[in-house]
Amino acid sequence: MGKDIQKKTAYDLVKQTKKENYLFLNENYAYHGQTVLFGDSITEIFNSYELFYTFSKVTGQAVYNRGISGDTSDRLLERLKCNALNITPKNLVILIGTNDIGKDIPSEYTLKNIQDILSVTHESCPNTNIILQAIYPVNSRMSLTARQMVGKRSNKKILAFNEELHNIAVENKVHWLDLTKYLSDKKGRLAKEYCYDGLHLNAQGFKVVAEKIIPLLK
Predict the structure, then answer these.
(1) What is the number of alpha carbons within 13 Å of residue 168 lying toward its C-beta?
(2) What's the CA gap between 160 and 124, in Å, rounded?
(3) Burial of 58 by CB count in 10 Å (0-12 exposed, 13-18 middle, 19+ buried)?
(4) What is the mean pLDDT of the chain?
């Protein structure tokens, strides 16, 4: 199963270059003991500079965005050390799994990868404050584009996965951040005012996320 899944999530030149860019920046420019946002495209497009500006100004702490579009849990695990842990982050904010669901990857495989991410972080950087986020809801009803973007994802699948992910957060004694109720409309879908394609948040949505993350940061 592992080999087949690995083929499905193989990096192309663009994604591999992003990984190598983050490694270069970490080794040559990034400071140790800062905050790292770690995940897929939802993290990559996070308006982190603006939304964490006051936090950075008050604390003197940089917030580094290390998201790569299309990342699945196995790829995040693969680049954990070279894109995040090699700068011993004070805070590590993780959001991963929606692409696993979109690719019909077995949840057991995804959960094991996330468990390994937490275990490796605890072992390599025992003082790092970890915030594990629940996967955000989706909304395929917004438009044809949204239906195509959401694909095989469903809020039923996401809720079921988040229940298991919550257990992992509790077992590993990390912060659990479930923003479902804050990002959803009355029908449990990702609210239209917080996204643009049924999957990715807009600046208003990321404002909600940042406001919930900041109080959990050290």
Answers:
(1) 23
(2) 30
(3) exposed
(4) 95
Distance CA 143, CA 139 (A): 9
d(CA 71, CA 42): 10
pTM over 0.70: yes
Coil vs helix vs strand at 64:
strand
Question: In the chain, where does DSSP find H-type helix?
Answer: 2-8, 13-28, 41-44, 48-51, 53-59, 73-78, 80-83, 98-102, 107-124, 144-150, 155-171, 180-183, 203-213
Q: What is the separation, in whole angstroms, between the first and last Cα of the chain?
A: 39
- Let me know: does 111 contact 172? Beta carbons within 8 Å: no
Q: What angle do CA 53, 56, 57 make, to 5 degrees?
A: 85
Tokens 């500079």 sit on residue: 49
User: pLDDT, tens digit, for every residue of 30-81?
Assistant: 999 999 999 999 999 999 999 999 999 999 999 999 999 999 999 999 999 9
